[in-house]
Amino acid sequence: MKRIFFILLAAALTAAGVTGCRKKAVKERKERIIRVGTMRPVHKLFQHRIPVQGTVMPVRYATLSSKTSGTLDVRNAEEGMSVKKDSVLFQVDRSNLESQVSVAERQYDVGRSEVETARIALELAKIRMRKSELDFKRASTLLKSKAISQENYESAEVDLKGAAAEVSSREANLKIAVAKRE
User: Is 120 part of any domain?
Assistant: First the structure.
């Protein structure tokens, strides 16, 4: 038992030695003197402003564009202005647009005339083709009875082939004219 007592006493002395029984040094604090001035309260109007510098970023962005291109004739809003929904901000010069419409109408009329001209030319070529077919049949009959020469027969055959080529050409021209119009 004595042994346990000596062990506990040795542990207590060791703990006291580690932590020490020293006196803690107290630091001296210097006092600062601050002068404070006072004023009488003055009644002023409060303004909701904060004088700072920086960049203002918008909450929402909007892209403005016109359905047609052209020069602006009327400008009812400036950058940074507040505007109401559906208000007219700008107007494109109408004279340029009206002239473009007029030119487009004339081009449409020209295209319609070209189509009509191509149809008439095709009909004429078909009439010439029918006449050439009749002439060729007649020349064939006359050649069998030896009433015309071989040269006249060949001439009628060439005329028939030329008329067929002209019909093909006129059909192509009509297709081109219709395609241009569309």
Answer: yes
